[in-house]
Amino acid sequence: xxxxxxxxxxxxxxxxxxCGKMNPAYVFxxxxxxxxxxxxxxxxxxxxxxxxxxxxxxxxxxxxxxxxAISLIQSFDEMEAEKKAGMTSSRRGSxxxxxxxxHEISYMQEALAKMVHKRLQIYPLHSTVTLEEQxxxxxxxxxxxxxxxxxxxxxxxxxxxxxxxxVIDFCLVxxxxxxxETNYQSLQLTWASKxxxxxxxxxxxxxxxxxxxxxxxxxFWRNEIPDYMIPEMLLAPLTTIMLKVxxxxxxxxxxxxxxxxxxxxxxxxVRTVLQLKEMGALSAKNDGRGHDGELTFLxxxxxxxxxxxxxxxxxxxxxxxxCLDECLIIGQSDEFDWGKENFxxxxxxxxxxxxxxxxxxxxxxxxxHVPESIQSLDYTSTQRQKFILQVVIAGAHxxxxxxxxxxxxxxxxxxxxxxxxxxxxMLRNLPxxxxxxxxxxxxxxxxxxxxxxxxxxxxxxxxxxxRTSQGAGVLPEVSLALLLAQQxxxxxxxxxxxxxxxICAGKNIKVVYVLFLCRVNVDFQSQSVCPVExxxxxxxxxxxxxxxxxxxxxxxxxxxxxxxxxxxxxASLEKQRHLTAEINSCTLHxxxxxxxxxxxxLAPYSEISEQNMYYRAKILHMRGNTVEVFFLDFxxxxxxxxxxxxxxxxxxxxxxxxxxxxxxxxxxxxxxSIILGNQWSSQARERFITLVKSRSLIVSLYSILHxxxxxxxxxxxxxxxxxxxxxxxxxEHAVKAEExxxxxxxxxxxxxxxxxxVEGTYVPNSAxxxxxxxxxxxxxxxxxxxxxxxxxxxSQSKTKARCPPFSIISI
Length: 811
Prior knowledge:
The protein has 811 residues and is an alpha+beta fold. 35% of the residues lie in helices and 20% in strands. Among the domains are: 37-230, Rossmann fold (3-Layer(aba) Sandwich), CATH 3.40.50.300; 231-303; 409-536 and 773-801, no CATH class. The strands form eight sheets. A six-stranded parallel beta sheet has the order 3-10-7-4-6-5, sandwiched between helices.
């Protein structure tokens, strides 16, 4: 191991006062005798490739500089051939490329891997690579191949590879920098110092003449590259140093730190003292000394723990709240083989285990012990433990935590235009007539999940996913789509010009303008593309019960306040009996298509001591030779064999589904329930199931939101007349809650509709013949446009689009 130091700084630090002056210590220089190393800069490489060099303001590696480095590696064969008079040696000199980080190494490795004909053996060298990969760096390459090592500054002084002949240096480094305002550390890309670069140059020339190529200009090297790096004490936070100084009990920290080789600024010391007081490591009582404080018990513990101070405080609070019993155990004689088979780096696991054991020993000195026996936790205890850990994490990082603000439901409702935010994402600033590209949009979102429908309106599109579970929360597909929108490149759509579309429309040019403003709905299940009204009735009277107060037979409970069932009035029960008889009197045929989620079919179901009867169903999940199906007329689910499924005839499919989804209004989980169950505790679930499961109860319809009936659930017996909400609140499982903005709006429209129906003033929304003709004309034009443009390719450049709801999509 070798390193370069600032001899002048050390000599002055250890100077001796003589005659009132500080004479620096004498420096003895012992020169080594390495092979000669030639240095080259970008100015010297103009014959190989032209360059455009970026300046100091934005340190980084452009694609052009990557290409220059690759071209330089390719040119080494020609250089070696010229020097050996055309005779190529079987031993090609190894190349060491210094890059600032893992991302740059991966990019360079991927680019070099494409050059198969150049016969390169590429080795990344980084702190995260496995031991096997590190050992490969020291091996001789296959005869005829050139070894290329892509390394961070780990190869600057810690690792020496003897056969390196060429060094390519981008003169960049990443180092820890502490933000002055937040006091948090981050890795920042900066120019390396001349000292570091000279150290890198010394990696070549160990066994023969070496060559160092610095990818900066000579002028930039002389004027902009610093001679030395800023000392770590002036960049890193002083919290750990301050605690070590306080342990020495040698007085004012300012006096002690002022004697350091590179003393920190006074302002940084004062800021560090305030931070330590804020987290409780130093006492607030200081007798008027704002730059000092007494070391507390927490401070003494933190000073002895080799971890970040916030993590140290997390450990102490974990002991206080009784959650210090997390351990990591790995101990078998064949652990290396086990790790190799399971692609786990045993070295990393051992480091974690060793750190855990070290921390456990250190905290035991302060009478904090991990329990010897760990009790198995049930669901409630596990949720309680999770909540305690959240409290501990928030307390350890105080005041650096956030509280989620209230959601503006009115604004969200307007943005999504009435679509369900739990199943839908929105695209903005799409090109005109974007319904022509619905297949491209479907394929773009295929990575996220199965798209159910897309509604196009002007320059917006609403992408709705199939619900893959019976829960009422946000779909994972929606979360994934939003995550991809934040992390991925903009979505790209090849589009047609407006002139092409208008020419194709011909005489129907006015209808084309109407299509730009109206809503076009694409249903992927029925494979239909149809225009719809922008202003239409949100509630279909034909699907409403005659009275908002009706009886429901509850068949399946999804969660507290969320269940499936069917109307239990005589007319609805008669429909079910008639439909069941019709299905089972037909000749049923096995399903011929490949099974997939959301496929509609007929599935068998039978109660105990009853023969199998077939009912309409939808596939929820595939499970090998079995599938989980949801019965569309009853609301319950079951697991059946794939071979037992039957095709669903179109005439039977035409009947409306009888099962309905319900949610109880007016309650939210109580704090107790949230603590014990994330949302609803197991006791709350058991209590709700006891109240409603497999029972016929009276419901009062409040609103219909996104196809879900939001109701009050009434329990009327000879002795009690109450609601499920009142019982859950009384048992402290729930608290009263106000309905959402959309639900209130729908409630007003629903009650107005029922009032009109009772008073006989309701007028059906029957469309006029002219309106029907216009919609028919629009539908015909949509079909013609889709048929025409499906045969041709867009000539316009690609349009970029981004997932909502956060950023406006640039075109």
